[in-house]
Amino acid sequence: MSTSRRKFINLLLGGGLLGWLGSIFYPVFSYLKPPPVPEANVNSVKAGPVADFPKNSGKIIKFGRKPVILIKMDTGELRAFSATCTHLDCIVQYRDDSKQIWCACHNGIYDLRGRNVSGPPPRPLDEFAVNIVNDEIIVSKMKEIG
Amino acid sequence: MFKKTNEKIYHWMDERFNLTPLIEYMQHKQVPVHKHSVWYYMGGVALFLFIVQVCSGILLLLYYQPGVDSSYESVRFIMTKVNFGWLVRSVHSWSANLMVFFVFVHMFSTFFTRAFQKPRELTWVTGFILLALAMGFGFSGYLLPWDELAFFATKVGTDIAGAVPFIGEAIKIVLRGGEDVTGATLSRFYAIHVAMIPALFTVILSLHLLFVQRQGMHEPDYYKNLKPEQKKTIPFFPNFVLRDVLLWLIVLNVLLFLAVYFPWELGPKADPFASAPEGIRPEWYFMFMFQSLKLLPAHVWFMEGEVAGILLFSVAGLAWMLTPFWSIKFDKSARFNPMLFIGIAVIAFIIFMTILGYLM
Amino acid sequence: MKNIFLRIVVSGLFLLFIKPDFILGDVETLMKTDNCISCHIEEEELPEDFNKHDIHMQKDLSCSGCHGGNPASDDMDEAMSIEAGFVGVPSKKEIPEFCGKCHSDIGFMRSYQPRIPTDQTDQYYKSLHGLRLKKGDTKVADCSSCHTAHSIMPASDPRSSVYALNVPETCNACHGDEEYMQEYEIPTDQFTKFAKSVHGVALLKEQDTGAPACNDCHGNHGAMPPGISSISHVCGSCHVNNMQYFSDSRMGAAFKKEKLHGCEECHGNHEVQKTSDEMIGVDDKAVCSNCHEPDDKGAEVATEIHKQLTTLATTYEKALAQQKEVEHKGMDDLDIEFLLQEAKQSLTQARTLVHTFDSVKVTVKVKEGLGKADLAIKEAQAQIEDYYFRRRGFGAATFIITLLIVALFFKIREIDQRNLNKEDRR
């Protein structure tokens, strides 16, 4: 067999091997790179620095598959509740005039403990725990009682 | 320059570990070439698939979180959020099935070529243990995604184990980690799947491979009787090994094809309080046993049908494992080959019951 | 601490279950301290509905608390003498005053419950029941008709006849009795209708005490059928937005002028059903066509609103189906789900905006929802495309692997050739 042919085969083999290694290691390395949300079960979510969040305001944050409303009260206390209205699953919002949680769909109103106080909502909103770690707000699931 | 470095490294190693005799041994080892040579590759393919299993399994471990609240979620997470996670999971599932399939093929080819005969009795026995462990891998791994089908299949599977006389109930409770299939079962199956069976498997597999290397390839009877100059062979290294690699590459491609075009599904999350959905069936390699047990009458002789069936399968399994020790010598003058008959009957039974299981 | 509480509750429940019947538990002590009870038990003359869980009994107001007399005396004549303040059984007409002598006196009631209302008697006399009683109609409900005479319990007590879940049955005892109600010439099927309504199903079937019972719309002590002007206020006390939109609309003004019954005209009263998009428009099921001609301006608006709503609803359904497909394919549907949530919210709001009877307002909201739903569909399609893109990646990998296979194949041939040559030379 001619040397040139042998050389060509060796080249092809080496190239193929390199390509193959690439096609194996590229997926493996991208697999190893953690995705943006690094965990399957969202148990806590960072909601930004405390200082950036004005008093008497609320915002919706994404908590896994659920929206959560985070509220900073006049006193500076932070509270978080499930933002899904218990009436027809609309997303509630914070009203800085009446200082209540309000659902625009049917005017359902909850107090700042999440209790349904007026309008159609049949149940209170579930509460989430809020902690501050290194000046950053962390919203997490309430520990189950019992 | 490049070659020189290579040689230097080799010398350094050779000086310390005396590699030359090993290489020479491998080079001098010859693999027979004949019309049944293709079966020599089946074990290699199974080995390759096992390696794929180990690699993809380790990758899955990085993200998988066992637990009632996290198993399903983390598998879903792997499939949706992790880069190429869908591929890794799909490859792991497909490769598992292909591995069991090739172990079966490997086993039956060994059986029909009578490769289990002296001096390879223990190679056969270790091979059988590997098959059992592979099925254990499949059974324990099936539950880990914690989806509906997995949950109920495990429930049924462990129930069957519970029907074994005297010790069945204890086995069932130990397997389940309690009376029912719960989160405790999941933890146990996880431990079994990623620690216990892999450790056992590695030891037995090493023995199995050691035996093969030590004894060389089995030569079929007609090949053995050829004159030495008529015996065609190729060196084990590199000729046979390269062929092996070539086949592995093809298998890898098929595996990728299956994983991409038929991605493994994830059913709805298991709900222990829901009623069992229709079409609960075990993995295909358990189907023939599952179906046979279902077909048995309620009472056989003085035992419950299911108990009788389990006893029968246990005895049959044991007998199959001990084949080298009882196999009937084949007299060339006789036309009837009893071992061939037994093998075909076993295969026919397995295929028939499997098909029946999927039809019913 | 928790344990003690639990123990009290459990033992309380326990007592309740092993001694379900009234007096047995306390009979000893009561017989010693209260001669009315001991004597009436002996004579087997206790009122039929006597129940020791009666709130008055619980607060140590036994028989004499209402009927007067002296429970300390064991002489019957003395105990039930006028001097001892005995009043006996009040006549029907006297009952409101009989109860009111305590319940209208905040000075007295305060000692039991500082924030208890004391206007029940007053309200009662302004109710249809009370007005008729004054006129001498003795078939109407008095206090005891709803509260019972001797098993009175607070409305918060599930055993009470006026507990939210029990109210419909309590009212129905009279209002569902065709024969009894005959002379009043009003329907008697309110309960049957209510039980089928969205409110009734929530209250009676799902036991959701948040759902309205009879008294939540009609009032209780001041019960009256709601007047024309008050209907939308009655419904609006829960359905705030709907009422606001309606009363601000031209439709609301027109209704007022025509003296139409607000919400009830379209939704019905006792049998109010869950709404659907088919209610608006000009189809058979549409309520608009009850008044509007198929070619008038109103019908035009109704048709437009119907079209808008169904457009959003079908787009939403389509997006939902796409999301399911994405999920089924094992692709990422998280963002799609959030978009869908927002689209659904717009749909809900658009449906509420129907009560403005302004197709422009509905259209604006629908547009908003369509935007979200379209975005969701786009995202879903991107995900599905991504799913198929994987196959292209497979193509690339196959190409590389095939290259390697071919190279390896030739290499093997080459090596085999070398071997043969070697053998030949030998």
Automatic annotation (TrEMBL), chain A:
Keywords: 2Fe-2S, Disulfide bond, Iron, Iron-sulfur, Metal-binding. SUPFAM superfamilies: ISP domain. It comes from the Bacteria. InterPro entries: Rieske_2Fe-2S, Rieske_2Fe-2S_sf, Rieske_Fe-S_prot, Rieske_Fe-S_prot_C. Residues 45-139 form the Rieske domain. Its cofactor is [2Fe-2S] cluster. The keyword Disulfide bond applies. One of its GO terms (molecular function) is 2 iron, 2 sulfur cluster binding. GO terms for cellular component: membrane. This is Rieske (2Fe-2S) protein. It comes from Caldithrix abyssi.
TrEMBL record, chain B:
One of its GO terms (biological process) is respiratory electron transport chain. InterPro entries: Cyt_b/b6_C, Cyt_b/b6_C_sf, Cyt_b/b6_N, Cytb/b6-like_sf, Cytochrome_b_N_euk/bac, Di-haem_cyt_TM. The chain crosses the membrane at residues 38-64, 94-112, 124-144, 190-212, 245-264, 309-328, 340-359. The keyword Acetylation does not apply. Pfam families: Cytochrom_B_C, Cytochrome_B. One of its GO terms (molecular function) is electron transfer activity. SUPFAM superfamilies: a domain/subunit of cytochrome bc1 complex (Ubiquinol-cytochrome c reductase) (SSF81648), Transmembrane di-heme cytochromes (SSF81342). Residues 9-221 form the Cytochrome b/b6 N-terminal region profile domain. Residues 226-360 form the Cytochrome b/b6 C-terminal region profile domain. It is a multi-pass membrane protein. Keywords: Electron transport, Heme, Iron, Membrane, Metal-binding, Respiratory chain, Transmembrane, Transmembrane helix, Transport. It is found in: Membrane. GO terms for cellular component: membrane. The keyword Coiled coil does not apply. It comes from the Bacteria. This is Cytochrome bc complex cytochrome b subunit. It comes from Caldithrix abyssi.
